[in-house]
Amino acid sequence: MPGDLRDGRIVIVGASLAGLRAAETLRDEGFTGSLTVLGEEPWPPYDRPPLTKQVLLGTAAPESTGLPMRRDVDADWRLGVRADGLDPIGKRVLLAGGEALPYDRLLIATGTRARPWPHPEQAALDGVLAVRTRDDAAHLADRLAAGPRRVLVIGGGFTGSEIASACRERDIEVTVAERGPGPLVGALGGTLAKLAAGLQRAHGVDLRCGVTVTALRGDDKGRFTGADLSDGSRIDADVCVIALGAVRNVEWLADSGLAAGPHGVACDAGCRAFTRYGIVTDDVFVAGDVSRFPHPLFDYQMLSLEHWGNAVAQAEVAAHNMVSPGPLRRPHLGVPVFWSNHFGISIKSVGVPTFSDQVVVAQGSVAERRLAAVYGYQGRVTAAVTVDMGKWLEHYQRLIETAAPFPPAPGAADGHPLISELPVPSDVPDPAGLSHGPTVALTGHLPDRRLTVRHSGT
Questions:
Q1: Quick one: where's region Disordered (predicted)?
Q2: Is the pLDDT of residue 66 over 70?
Q3: Residues 6+ apart with CB under 8 A from 240
Q4: Residue 315: CB partners within 8 Å, gap ≥ 6?
Q5: Mean of the pLDDT values across residues 158-162?
Q6: 154 in a structural domain
Q7: What total of structural domains would you count in the chain?
C-alpha cells in the first residue's frame, strides 16, 4: 500500500455484517482510497438472526432484514460475484468469471454456509431445506405457511431449536433428531441441555436424542416423505430442515498459502491473517464468522465464533488496523457474547461454556427455568449462561475478564445473594458425537493443523 495508509485500494470479500461494518469504520477512520465490496449473494448486507425467528413466524418479510447503513461508505458494491481464488504475491482477488481484482489491503469476511446433508440425491428431494440465507428463510417460511403435517429438524443446536420453536408457535407438529444426548449440549454442556430438552418436550416437540437419521425418503415424484432413524423407527413428515451447523467459506483460499481450514482463517489478535507456517501477513486481514483468532482468557487457543456481536467488534478492529501504523493498532479481545430466544425464554451467554470442567447454578434453578449458570476451568470463571436473567450477564462478564475464582463467591453486584450449590461436571461432549456444532469453538494453538514441516539441507 502507498505510504499513506488512508489511501490506496482496499477490497472486502464478503458483503456481510462484518463486511459492512468494516467498510463504515474504514471511512470513519479517514480512509479516502478505493473501496470494493464483493458479495456472492445478490442482496446488500442483511441481518441473519431474524431469519430463524420473525421471518419463519411470518411477522417479518425476508426483504425487511436489510442492515441499516450507518453512513455512505462510497464503495463499489459487486453483488452476485463470487471470489474464486487469491493471489497474495500479485495482490489480486480472482473472481469466478476470470476477472482479477487488484488490492493493496484485503479483508476476508466470507462467513459461513449451512452444512449440507451428506447424501446429495436425498438433499435434492423437494421439501429438504436448510436455513442460512435470506432466500433459504423465505423458502421455509412459505413451506410453514402452507401448513405441513409435520416438520423434521435434523440437529438440536441453536438454529434447530429456533426453527422447532417457530414450528410450534405456528401449531405445526415437529420432530427434532439429535445425535447427542440433548439439544444445545454442544454449546452449553449437559446441565442446561437437560433444561432445553424439558422445555422442548413441554412445548410439544417430539424430541429424539441419541439417534441419527440414516436416510431421507421420497416418493416417485421426488417429494420428501419421511426419514429412517438409527433406532429402527421412521418419521413421516412433509418438510425436513437440515440444521447440522456451519461450514466456513474458505475453499477459495485453498491455494493462497494462508492458514485456512475447516475452523476458518487463522489471524492474530490484530486480525492480520497467518500464513500456513504461522507467519503473520501485513496486507490481509480477517473478520467475522470465518476468522479464527487467539484469546488470552482461554489459554491463547485459537477461537472460532459464530456471533453477531463478534462480527461487528472484530470488523471494527480489523478496519482500524488496516489504516493505522503499527503502534496505533489495537487487539480484538472481546469476550464472546451470544443470545437466543425460543420457546418463550431468553438464553444469553458470555465467555466460552465449552472451555470448562465444572458448572454451578449460581442463581435461580433448572426447575424454575430461570437461572444463571457459571462455568469454571481449573479454578477460574470462564463463562456464564443466563436463562431469563440477562441483567446479570455484565456482572459475570467482569468475573471472566478478571479471571475470578471458581466457584464465584456469594454476593453479586447489587447485593443479591448467590445460591450455594455445589459445582458439578460441565459435561461438555466431544463435538464429533453431535448433530450440531458449538457456536464457540476452541480449536487449539496451531494456525493450520494441516501443516507439514519440511526441513531443507542435511
A1: 411-441
A2: yes
A3: 125, 127, 128, 129, 151, 152, 153, 154, 216, 224, 227
A4: 17, 18, 19, 20, 21, 22, 25, 107, 109, 287, 288
A5: 95
A6: yes
A7: 3
Q: Is 269 in a helix, a strand, or coil? A: coil
In this predicted model, what pLDDT tens digit does every residue of 315-334 receive, in sequence order? 999 999 999 998 999 999 98
Do residues 344 and 389 share a domain? Answer: yes
* Cβ(438)–Cβ(159) below 8 Å: no
What number is the average pLDDT over the span 127-137?
96
- Cβ-based neighbours of 68, under 8 Å, separated by 6 or more: none
Confidence category of residue 454, pLDDT binned at 50, 70, 90: low
> Considering only CA atoms, which of 114, 110, 89, 127 is closest in space to residue 45?
110
Residue (of 126, 174, 137, 116) closest to 55 by Cα position: 137
In a domain, 448, yes or no: no
**pLDDT for 1:** 43
| pLDDT at residue number 411 | 56
Identity of residue 430: D
Whether residues 277 and 130 fall in one domain: no
Q: Assess whether pLDDT exceeds 90 at residue 400.
A: yes
Residue 451 lies in a domain: no
Measured CA to CA, the distance from residue 45 to residue 68 in angstroms comes to: 9
How confident is residue 450, by pLDDT bands cut at 50, 70 and 90?
Answer: low
Q: What is the DSSP letter of 396?
A: H
Which DSSP letter does residue 183 get?
Answer: T
454 domain residue, yes or no: no
Q: Which three cell numbers stand for residue 244?
A: 447440522
- Write out pLDDT tens, residues 374-396: 999 999 999 999 999 999 999 99
**Are 318 and 360 contacting, i.e. CB atoms less than 8 angstroms apart?**
no
Q: How far apart are CA 255 and CA 239, in angstroms?
A: 39
- 234: domain range? 115-245
The domain boundary, picked from 214, 245, 276, lies at 245
265 membership: H or E segment, kind and range: strand 264-266
Task: State the chain's mean pLDDT as an integer.
Answer: 92
CATH assignment at residue 137:
3.50.50.60
| Joined grid coordinates for residue 201 | 418436550
Coil, helix or strand at residue 91: coil
pLDDT at 432: 78
Compute the distance between CA of residue 157 and CA of residue 140 in angstroms, rounded to an integer: 18
The answer on 234 and 135 residing in a single domain is yes
Cβ atoms of 442 and 297 within 8 Å: the answer is no
